[in-house]
From TrEMBL:
Residues 1-26 form the signal peptide. The lineage of its organism: Eukaryota, Metazoa, Ecdysozoa, Arthropoda, Crustacea. This is Oplophorus-luciferin 2-monooxygenase non-catalytic subunit. It comes from the Eukaryota. Keywords: Signal. The keyword Signal applies.
Length: 228
């Protein structure tokens, strides 16, 4: 390992160390301000055993449902969870563990919708390698934030992003995205493709993004050509 590589790895570890606790803290603060009521008889959560190992939380003050699928074991299990009896299919947040998930098929989430989707891995990188063009399409009118950092996505159905009418934040940093994606979206404000592997940003690449405020391509291997 060259000294540069070594320094790079140390930097990545530092960045990871700074990055993770702030989100843990954010979650903890959120939980302090309200009490979840997933145990209530009138909770719109599915039966706990129908969706195990995922866990549903109902926040009655917000009238919103979150689902935590951090411990999901494989694709079939995820499919079964979202095709169980789900009385209210409109979730606010999905947290999805990608230690054991390689693929998110078009049909995996059934009729369930989300506003925020986060993937997580317990190691540094999850193994998620493919997302279908329709995977989140039921959420096209609701999805605001899609965060899938630290995975193995060399490609993503970027062209489908134009159909997500509420999507403002799209984060794919630390994925081996090999071609600069041409994205069309009226709403996207924040895109993060940091540490991707493309080396050319084509002319007009940002033309389809009228509301873009920030496009992060930091630590992308080496960008040779850049067009404003
Ligand atoms: C990452 O994706 C590539 C294909 O793009 C695949 O060959 C490789 O096996 C994947 N790695 C893991 C850890 O899944």
């Amino acid at each position: 390992m060259s000294i540069l590589h070594f320094v790079y790895v140390i930097l990545l570890v530092l960045v990871a160390a700074c990055f993770q606790p702030s989100h843990v803290l954010a979650a903890a603060q959120f939980e302090d301000t309200a009490s979840p009521s997933s145990y209530l008889n009138n909770s719109p959560c599915p039966n706990a055993e129908d969706i195990a190992p995922c866990v549903c939380t109902y926040w009655d003050v917000y009238h919103s449902l979150d689902i935590d699928c951090m411990s999901i074991e494989d694709e079939q299990q995820l499919y079964d969870v979202f095709h169980a009896n789900i009385p209210d299919p409109n979730f606010r947040r999905l947290d999805l563990g990608t230690d054991n998930l390689k693929t998110l098929t078009d049909t995996v989430f059934g009729d369930v919708t989300f506003e925020t989707v986060w993937t997580h891995s317990t190691g540094f990188y999850g193994i998620l390698t493919s997302v279908g063009p329709e995977t989140f399409m039921k959420s096209a009118p609701t999805l605001r934030e899609l965060y899938m950092p630290y995975n193995n996505l060399s490609n993503f159905p970027f062209q489908s992003l134009s159909q997500y009418t509420e999507l403002t934040d799209f984060v794919l940093h630390d994925n081996p995205v090999s071609n600069f994606p041409i994205i069309q979206s009226e709403n996207l404000r924040y895109i993060d493709l940091g540490a991707a592997t493309f080396d050319i940003i084509p002319t007009g690449a940002l033309d389809g993004l009228p509301n873009l405020e920030e496009f992060d391509v930091s630590s992308t291997t080496s960008i040779h050509s850049m067009a404003a």
